[in-house]
Structures are given as C-alpha cells and as structure tokens.
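Sequence decides. Our protein:
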Amino acid sequence: LCSMAAGGGPEDVSQQDSSGQLLRLFKLLRLFRLMKLLRLARIARLFERYQDDLFQYLHFFAVLKLVVIMLYVGHLFGCFFHYFSVDEWRTDDELAQIDAGALSPWLKEYFDDAHSTSGDVWDRYIVSM
C-alpha cells in the first residue's frame, strides 16, 4: 500500500481497488444468471413430470385464456371510450350544442354534474364498460 516509487500514490491504489470491485460485480452478475438457468431447468423437469396431468385440463386453460383476453379487451375499450368522451375531444359544433342544451353527453347524464369526471373512479370505470 505504501510505496516510495514515483506514481505509487493513493490515487493508483483506489483505481486498482475500484477495478477489482467492478470485476467482482461482474462475477456476481454471472452467478445470478447461472442460478436463473438452473431454476429454468428445474421448472422444465417439473413440467415434464406433470405434463400428462396438465394435458387433461388443457381445454380449461384455453377457456381461461379466452376469458382473460376478453376482460382485457373490454378494459381497453372502456378506457378508450371514457378517454374520448371528455370535453377535450369534442368539436366546436358539439360543444356549442352542449351549451345550447340540444346535446347531452352521456357522462354528464349519468353523473348529473357539470364536470363529467368528478365522480368516483370506479363508478366512471363501470359506466364506461
């Protein structure tokens, strides 16, 4: 650590120490990747063991996947429907008709409020669906 040679000061020691720490960090990251691969191999063995049992319930998984996809698509459509129903997306003609009372937005009708986004979030979500 202590050197009498030129250029052997504390700066060089700290630089070597930081590069050693960086090398140890890379080795640790490689170890984590190796452990992840071992976990994948274990999961593959479990899947092979229970493959025949899972095959009996394959149609249930297909129906479950369909239900989840339908719920997600319904959620997306409800969010888009609500998002495009606020005043920022209305044309000037629609806004004039709303002010004149000739047109009544569905959010305003349902919540009976001047601000269509002032209701509870869950209420607005269910109504949009």
